[in-house]
Design a protein that fits this description.
five-stranded mixed sheet, alpha/beta, about 210 residues, Cobalt-precorrin-4 Transmethylase, domain 1, Methyltransferase, Cobalt-precorrin-4 Transmethylase, Domain 2
Length: about 210
């Protein structure tokens, strides 16, 4: 029986690929992922499908179809499949497949390491695909740092928080392009982030008051 692998590829650099991820990706007939995820496996010789934001649903369905056709398929998920990854949409699509989840190192983990924040003492929130939601406001008053994956632009999230009355002097950190050679960690105030430009590969931490 064919299997669908959901493979976490880490924050971006091949340095953070696990041996389990490499083994799973190299064992399948079809590899599905974004171009930057596929680039992590330059020696792969099977078929590939490029995953983009605008064809996500189509590629999920295609992957399931290929498994039904008897092919082993791996969907590459940046970070970990279980946090803003491909696990949720696949389970919504089908829950009767032979699925193996290969966990990966999330950008959240790497951000916590860079900022030396203990995992169990922060709020975790993803806004990927959800827009700038007021849900984040529920976390900002509980005296813990809040680590968030922005929907797209971290400066837009900062502007949203200012509009909602969050103190412009609130301390924040932005971890940009983690694991890549041009990685940057910015520490400053909320109002500073609102006026700067960052890439879309960011994790933001809003510290407690």
């Amino acid at each position: 029986m064919a299997k669908l692998y959901l493979v976490g590829t880490g924050p971006g650099s091949s340095d953070y690929l696990t041996k389990a991820a490499i083994k799973a990706a190299e064992s399948v007939d079809v590899l599905v992922g974004s171009q930057r995820a596929l680039d992590l496996f330059p020696g792969y010789t099977g078929d590939t499908l490029i995953l983009r934001a605008r064809n996500m649903d189509e590629m999920m369905k295609k992957s399931v179809f290929l498994v039904d056709e008897g092919k082993n398929v791996a969907i590459l998920s940046t970070g970990d499949p279980g946090f803003s990854g491909v696990l949720k949409p696949i389970l919504r699509l089908r829950d009767d497949l032979d699925i193996e989840v290969v966990p990966g190192i999330s950008s959240l983990q790497l951000a916590a390491a860079r900022l030396q924040l203990p995992w169990d003492e922060i709020n975790l929130l993803t806004l990927h695909g959800k827009g700038n939601s007021s849900r984040i406001l529920e976390f900002l008053g509980n005296r813990k740092p809040t680590m968030v994956l922005p929907d797209f632009r971290v400066e837009k999230l900062a502007q949203f928080l200012l509009e909602k009355g969050i103190d412009p002097e609130r301390k924040v950190a932005v971890c940009e392009r983690l694991s890549y050679p041009d990685e940057r960690v910015f520490k400053g105030r909320l109002e500073e982030v609102a006026d700067l430009k960052f890439s879309y590969l960011c994790v933001m931490v809003v510290y407690s008051e």
